[in-house]
Design a protein that fits this description.
This protein is an alpha+beta fold. The protein has helices at residues 6-15, 21-43, 65-79, 144-147, 216-227, 245-255, 276-289, 320-332; strands at 52-56, 62-64, 84-89, 96-97, 107-115, 126-134, 156-162, 166-171, 177-182, 187-192, 203-205, 238-239, 258-261, 274-275, 293-295, 312-313, 315-318. It has 2 domains: 6-192, Fructose-1,6-Bisphosphatase, Chain A, domain 1 (2-Layer Sandwich), CATH 3.30.540.10; 203-332, D-Maltodextrin-Binding Protein, domain 2 (3-Layer(aba) Sandwich). Bound molecules: 1,6-di-O-phosphono-beta-D-fructofuranose and magnesium ion (2 copies).
Length: 333
């Protein structure tokens, strides 16, 4: 069987005029960094990478060693690429400028280096999420303001899933494409062309321990799902919650479903739990490109005008019909 690598796929995308040479190189560098993170994740205790780093990030969350390692790998790999104007990371408070003198590239890269940190020490799937925007500054150092573009302006978005196999899932605005890492060869192989989210689903993902803090529309929606055949939906639904957004979203891309981290009384003062710029926006672009929908419950995520780099938002995404139902319940309320 002829195997297509990520490199070949990207060259084809460039030939078809969907990406520039610089964006192709940028994605190649991110993919290389992802391979290095994958090696560290899979070595686990053997490489001494488990446990706390002993520091807090900008959000006041305790950093794991792997949060710090993954962040360093991504920053270092991309500093050298020459295609970036600046970066932003969940683990770094300010914009990360490129510390070299050569001309600035035309893109901004944002990432959540290690998503699902609470799962690292228990050997459950974690991931990396990234988003690419055009830099509006032409040669000058980008500021935080340069990054504050709505998600619909993303030119590429993707994630890596470090599961039983390592996968890279990518969109450049023409469908969603999945690649599986061949560890022996060291290359990503094109295994999942044009991934789509089924419109109908029988699965939902939400942290049910927060139920008493949810708003009424979410209470109503989940209560109806749980009533199954006996309730207004007239059929049974199954529940899953990995607590790694990457893993939960990947499941939805493979077999459908709805994922929710809604606004609740616990996270209301922060605006939500998940971060807009490097969690919600890239995942929303991927899900929409795969035929699904992504909303805060009130607005389309990709239309939100960001106010700050580390802004948090409520997230409801997945199969179209279910997301539309949640949005309708918010509207009715
Ligand atoms: O522990 P909770 O409240 O269920 O939250 C789980 C959510 O938090 C996250 O782990 C946040 O990501 P980080 O690990 O990057 O902070 C998501 O991946 C996941 O969906
Ligand atoms: Mg995360
Ligand atoms: Mg993280």
């Amino acid at each position: 069987m002829r195997r297509v690598t990520l490199t070949q796929f990207l060259i084809e995308q460039q030939r078809a005029g969907r990406i520039s040479a610089d964006l192709r190189l940028l994605i190649e560098v991110v993919a290389r960094a992802v391979k290095a993170i994958s090696v560290n994740v899979s070595k686990g205790a053997l490489a001494g990478v488990l446990g706390e780093a002993g520091t807090d990030n900008v959000q006041g969350e305790a950093q794991k060693k792997l949060d710090v390692i993954a962040n360093e790998i991504l920053l270092q790999a991309n500093e050298w690429g020459g295609h970036l104007a600046a970066m932003a990371s969940e683990e770094v408070e300010e914009v990360h400028q490129i510390p070299f003198d050569y001309p600035k590239g035309g893109y901004l890269l944002l990432f959540d280096p290690l998503d699902g940190s609470s799962n690292i020490d228990v050997n459950i799937s974690v991931g990396t999420i990234f988003s690419v925007l055009r830099s509006p500054t032409e040669g000058a150092d980008p500021t935080e303001q340069s990054f504050l573009q709505p998600g619909r302006e993303q030119v590429a978005a993707g994630y890596a899933l470090y599961g039983p196999s390592t996968m890279l899932v990518l969109t450049v605005g023409k469908g969603v494409h999945g690649f599986t890492l061949d560890r022996e060869m060291g290359s990503f192989i094109y295994t999942h062309p044009y991934m789509t989210v089924p419109v109908e689903t029988g699965e939902f993902a939400i942290n049910a321990s927060n139920e008493r803090f949810w708003e009424a529309p979410v209470q109503r929606y989940v209560a109806e799902l749980r009533q199954g055949k006996e309730g207004p939906r007239g059929r049974d639904f199954n529940m899953r919650w990995v607590a790694s957004m990457v893993a939960d979203v990947h499941r939805i891309l493979i077999r459908g479903g709805i994922f929710m981290y809604p606004l609740d009384e616990k996270c209301r003062s922060k605006g939500g739990k998940l971060r807009l710029m490097y969690e919600a926006n890239p995942m929303a672009m991927i899900i929409e490109q795969a035929g699904g929908a992504a909303s805060t419950g009130r607005e389309r995520i990709l239309d939100l005008q960001p106010q700050k780099l580390h802004q948090r938002v409520p997230v409801v995404l997945g199969s179209l019909n279910e997301v539309e139902r949640v949005v309708a319940y918010h509207r009715e309320a």
